[in-house]
């Protein structure tokens, strides 16, 4: 059995998951004793303990005062020495137990404080990260082109193209000897129809790009 227990021991496993070997029993015994002393310390701090101790002391004094001399185990003339010794022993054991319970509570408070501090640091880091992400998103949204801006740019581009077509038509008419005064210069019906069709096609293309 001992060989089987040694063979089943894994040193690469976490300490809390190992079987009770290599000091595990000692740690478990210390923890069990600490819980026992904490239970006693909590019991001493209750009104029931004070009431029981008071009843015990009164019963001791009454028995050793009113009982027959042969049945008494403490001397009234000596000031109840045995009772004093019992209470002194109880106090001498109670003080270390209370101190041990306080030390264990301090250790738990220290661990809880450290966990709270780490949790607060993680929360602060997450909050700062989210704040930076929100600011970056706002800046990116400002840099994006809106739908109205794209429409206005396309309209301006169509106007420029129309003006360029009209200038080309005027130059072609002048080259053919059909140029007229600036106020009455207009291309012939075929050129107007062609430019109208080209303008319509550009508008359709612009609208489809917007949609």
UniProtKB/TrEMBL annotation:
- The residue ranges flagged as biased composition, category Low complexity, are 172-181
Against InterPro entries, the record matches this protein to: DUF1003 (IPR010406)
From the record, give the transmembrane residue ranges. 48-66, 78-100
Which keywords appear in this protein's UniProt record, sorted alphabetically? Membrane, Transmembrane, Transmembrane helix
Q: What's a Pfam family in this record?
A: DUF1003
Region of interest: Disordered? 1-29, 172-211
For bias kind Basic and acidic residues, which ranges apply? 182-211
Q: What is this protein called?
A: DUF1003 domain-containing protein
Q: Which organism is it from?
A: Cryobacterium frigoriphilum
């Amino acid at each position: 059995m001992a060989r089987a227990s040694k063979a089943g021991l894994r040193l690469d496993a976490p300490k809390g998951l190992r079987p009770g070997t290599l000091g595990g029993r000692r740690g478990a015994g210390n923890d069990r004793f600490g819980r026992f002393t904490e239970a006693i310390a909590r019991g001493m701090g209750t009104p029931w303990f004070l009431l029981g101790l008071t009843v015990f002391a009164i019963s001791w004094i009454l028995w050793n005062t009113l009982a027959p001399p042969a049945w008494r185990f403490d001397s009234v003339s000596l000031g109840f020495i045995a009772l004093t010794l019992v209470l002194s022993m109880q106090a001498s054991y109670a003080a270390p137990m209370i101190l041990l319970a306080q030390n264990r509570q301090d250790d738990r408070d220290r661990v809880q404080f450290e966990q709270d501090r780490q949790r607060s640091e993680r929360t602060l880091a997450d909050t700062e990260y989210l704040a930076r992400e929100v600011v970056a998103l706002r800046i990116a949204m400002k840099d994006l082109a809106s739908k109205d801006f794209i429409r206005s740019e396309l309209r301006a581009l169509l106007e420029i193209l129309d003006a360029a077509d009209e200038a080309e038509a005027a130059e072609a008419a002048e080259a053919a000897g059909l140029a007229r005064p600036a106020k009455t210069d207009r291309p012939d019906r075929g050129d107007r129809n062609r430019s109208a069709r080209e303008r319509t096609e550009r508008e359709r293309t612009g609208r489809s790009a917007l949609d």
